[in-house]
Structure formats: C-alpha cells, structure tokens
Automatic annotation (TrEMBL):
Origin: domain of life: Bacteria
Name of the protein this chain belongs to: M90 family metallopeptidase
InterPro entries on file: MetalloPept_cat_dom_sf, MtfA_fam, MtfA_N
Gene3D superfamilies per record: Collagenase (Catalytic Domain) (3.40.390.10), Glucose-regulated metallo-peptidase M90, N-terminal domain (1.10.472.150)
Length: 256
C-alpha cells in the first residue's frame, strides 16, 4: 500500500507539474524573496506542495481580474510555506481561494447583544471563512514576501490552521508532542505585552493589528515568524519557540 501511495503521488505530481512552465515558476519565485533562504530540498518540497494545492483548490476571480499561472503559483507558494512540514491535509474541508484585484468591501451583518443589526462594510485586504474560502486582494498578495513582516497570504492561511478545531481563537490544534498549557502561557504573556505597547503608542516590530484579538495575534505572529523571524524571536522568544514546534520549521536559523 505504501508503494502504491508513493506511485500515485508521483504520478499526480508529474501530471500537475506539466501545467506550469519554467517562466511561470521564475516569475512567481522572483516575487517572493521570502523563499530565498530555503534549502534546495525545502524549495523542491514547497514546489510539490504548491502544485498539489492548485490541483485541489480552485482559484476564483472577482471584479474582472485576469488570472495567470504565475499568479496562481505566487499564491500557492506562500500558502504552502506554513505547511511545508505539516502536509496538505491541514488545508482540508474547504475548496477555494477568491481573488480580488485590490481591497474589497464585504457586507457582513452582525447582531449585537441588544439585538440591533448592523452592517460591517469596511474595506478589507483578506478574509478567511470557517470551512469556506480564503479571500485575497492581489494588490496585497504581491506586497507579501518582501521580508518586511507583512504577508497577507500567510496571515489568512494561519487563520485557516487556527480554525481546524473550531472558530479562530489563537490556539490551533497542537501536535502530540506539544503542551496546551505551555502554548497558552507563552501566547497570553506576549499578547498582553503587545496590547500594552500598542495602547501606550509604542512602536512594535510586529504589526500592531495583532492586538485586535488572540486570533489576529496568532496570524500576525505567523507572518513575522516567516518574514522577520529574528525580530520575532528577539521580542517574543517563547512565542517563537511554540511556532517553531507547531510549524516544524526554524526560519531564524536559515535566515540570511
């Protein structure tokens, strides 16, 4: 059975790879300096994951944006970086990415505790739905990967990982060799620190948007983990350690 599974995976990969030519790969890779520190083996594994991701997930467009294969690969490479050592099954139970050309205005109805209904139509660059699609702004997708701490794709896909055990709350399902109490202690202390610094008007190395909620803090720290790993490690070493164990990667060690 193991040999059959390997044969099937290899055959699937060979078929999927044929869809994308070298120019598409170069265009996608050139957009993502974020990937330059990967070893050759890691880069090859990431490319395999990306083509399998694109085989399983539809990328649907909105507002007339024209989708090219290099754009598909740009999204898939960033989406698969967090699961490089986890596997594609971590993105199961949903099927599509929806791509807008720029910021979009979703209209979400909310009912407050007094029973009043209000509509949230603030412009957004990305959104992740539980068991639903990931929605991205292409303008913000191509702004990612520049090693500045901002990466919309990693942010939204971190939410997807967080949602694997229910509503996003900053506590994704952990591996069997991890401890829930250690996770909660590390994240709670770091989150409180960021909130205090943001409230005081201090500059922070990670996006202050992380102070919005524990879920956003997890997503923002995941961005920093891959984009500016040494800064995150210096500011919040316990959070960095937990992310290294969760993602099974150590970006600071390979950072050049």
């Amino acid at each position: 059975m193991i040999r059959l599974h390997r044969w099937w995976r290899q055959r699937t990969l060979e078929r999927a790879r044929k869809r994308y030519d070298d120019a598409d790969w170069r265009a996608a890779w050139d957009r993502l300096p974020l990937l330059d520190d990967l070893t050759s083996d890691e880069a090859a594994s990431l490319c395999d994951l990306a083509v399998l991701f694109l085989r399983d997930k539809a990328i649907e467009t909105a507002q007339g944006i024209a989708l090219t294969d290099s754009m598909r690969l740009t999204i898939a490479l960033q989406a698969c970086l967090p699961i490089l050592h986890l596997g594609l099954h971590w993105y199961s139970d949903w099927y599509a990415v929806i791509l807008y050309p720029a910021e979009f205005r979703p209209k979400h109805e909310h009912i407050d505790e007094d029973g009043l209904v209000w509509v949230d139509d603030q412009p957004m660059s990305g959104e992740a739905w539980e068991r639903g699609p990931v929605i991205l702004s292409w303008e913000d997708v191509i702004a990612g990967g520049e090693r500045d701490g901002y990466n919309l794709v990693i942010h939204e896909f971190a939410h997807k990982l967080d949602m694997r055990n229910g509503v996003a709350n900053g506590h994704p399902p952990l591996h069997s060799d991890m401890n829930d109490r250690e996770w909660a202690a590390a994240w709670s202390a770091a989150y409180d620190d960021l909130c205090q610094r943001v409230d005081a008007g201090d500059e922070t190395s990670i996006d202050p948007y992380g102070a919005e909620s524990p879920a956003e803090f997890f997503a923002v720290c995941s961005e920093a983990f891959f984009e500016i790993p040494t800064q995150l490690r210096d500011d919040y070493p316990r959070v960095y350690e937990q992310l290294a164990r969760f993602y099974r990667q150590d970006p600071a060690a390979r950072f050049r």
